[in-house]
Amino acid sequence: MQPIPQDSICDPAAGTGGFLFTAYNYVLDNYERDLNRDQKRALREKLVEAMELSPKVGRMCAMNLYLHGIGGEKVVVHSGHDSLAAPWSKEYTMILANPPFGKSQSLLFVNEEGDTEKDDQVIVREDFWTSTSNKQLNFVQHMFSLLKIDGRAAVVLPDNVLFEGGAGEKVRKNLLEKCNVHTLLQPEYGIRPE
């Protein structure tokens, strides 16, 4: 992805922030000698931003970024916020993400008999190409909505999610029509090079 100091980088499913501090370190390794003190401070405070649903994991992300020299007095981690719930008010030049694995977005509840049940939660947003309960497809659509024009993204998705029919096909077609797609890999299970 080769981030540069002028980028604004977001991970909407940041976990502990691994992609973000790696991107920050890449920029430092390649551009630090060309930056003055104010530019280095801006890089530390503004280059990366994280979104994380779990407040506990969000705190770990903030600490991890801070321990890697990112943030200075403030580390931007939006934790406890469901990044899929509504359009985000900011756009970024780069998205780096490995959204949570698992097919369905679901709510856990206790029914009248006292048993635990799951209810698939279909995400409906006007800025999405399709409504689905598939978390990975919702994250892909969300990431597209977060990108500035000419922004770029690198996303890790499991289980051939973009090669399925229905919502997967619709998302894949929109990506191919609306984006300059570099690579979509469909893994071949059980085949290993010798």
Describe the structure.
- This protein has 194 residues and is α/β, with parallel strands linked by helices.
- It has one domain: Vaccinia Virus protein VP39 (Rossmann fold, 3-Layer(aba) Sandwich), CATH 3.40.50.
- 31% of the residues lie in helices and 19% in strands.
- It contains five helices and seven strands, in the order βααβαββββαβα.
- The protein has helices at residues 18-31, 37-46, 55-67, 135-146, 167-178; strands at 9-11, 48-52, 77-79, 92-97, 106-110, 116-120, 147-155.
- The strands form two sheets. It has a five-stranded parallel β-sheet.
- A hairpin with a 5-residue loop joins strand 5 (106-110) and strand 6.
- The longest helix is centred in the N-terminal third of the chain and has 14 residues, at 18-31.
- The two termini are 29 Å apart.
- The relative contact order is 0.14.
